[in-house]
Specification:
Blueprint: E1 2-6, H1 10-22, E2 26-30, H2 33-42, E3 47-51, H3 59-68, E4 75-79, H4 84-93, E5 97-100, H5 105-119, E6 131-133, E7 136-139, E8 144-147, E9 150-151, H6 156-167, E10 173-174, H7 175-183, H8 193-207, E11 214-217, E12 221-224
Parallel strand pairs: 1-2, 1-3, 3-4, 4-5
Antiparallel strand pairs: 6-7, 7-8, 8-9, 10-12, 11-12
């Protein structure tokens, strides 16, 4: 994968970049939030590894600017800040995953591959079938979704999540099931990435309709109303 590593600690960045290159990744280093945005505007990357505490522009601000501009680049936030509230802030800002330093390069490699699988969720899709659940329609082959016949502006990850929920409307999907089907994880991550992505998807669905179509089953998972 072609990675952008955004890290202001030069020694740490060089060490991590070398380890990732040894795992067959190409790595470009950006030392500040501003230089990260400039690099994304200049070149195409498969994913970004983003430090939270950066000079010039903090990591969550970098994420917010990317997402507000419609950029869906997969982002793993890598930070020394590991409290639950800090993880939620990073995920709510638009991170696809959040890991706490120090994290071995081999684990980052696994998470990046899982993200790549998640962003390619349509590869084993429904062969052109249209999915419908209430007033929500999803077209896996077109990578598009609608509510009340109005197009939804979703990231690929949000679209993948909505697709899995729409495949089985009225059925509870556990967090473990969603992690496997959408993110490609076969393990339980330390962060609540499912809950954070559901919150972002829910906001967009509510904005396009009259009610909340996603039902939360506390302690179990989520269900899309049929």
């Amino acid at each position: 994968m072609d990675l952008l590593l955004v890290e202001d600690d030069t020694a740490y960045a060089e060490t991590l970049a070398a380890e990732l290159r040894a795992l067959d990744h190409a790595v470009t280093i950006a030392p500040t939030g501003i230089s990260a945005l400039e690099a994304v505007a200049r070149a195409r990357f498969d994913a970004m590894i983003l430090d939270r505490m950066l000079p010039q522009l903090e990591g969550t601000s970098v994420l917010q600017r990317l997402r507000e501009a419609g950029n869906t680049l997969p982002v793993v936030m890598l930070s020394a800040l590991g409290r639950s509230v800090e993880k939620v802030e990073g995920l709510d800002a638009g991170a696809d995953d959040y890991v706490v330093k120090p994290t071995p390069a081999i684990e980052l490699d696994a998470r990046l591959k899982a993200l790549a699988r998640a962003r390619g969720w349509t590869a084993g899709g429904s062969g052109g079938d249209t999915l419908r659940a209430g007033d929500i329609t999803v077209s896996p082959t077109q990578l598009r979704a609608w509510r009340n016949d109005q197009p939804l502006d979703l990231t690929k990850l949000e679209l993948g999540l909505l697709t899995e929920l729409a495949r089985q409307p009225g059925t509870i999907l556990t967090r473990a099931m969603l992690l496997e089907r959408v993110w490609g994880y076969d393990f339980e991550p330390a962060t609540n990435i499912v809950d954070a992505q559901v919150r972002m998807l829910r906001r967009k669905l509510i904005a396009a309709g009259d009610d909340d179509p996603i039902v939360t089953k506390r302690g179990l998972g989520y269900m899309l109303r049929g």
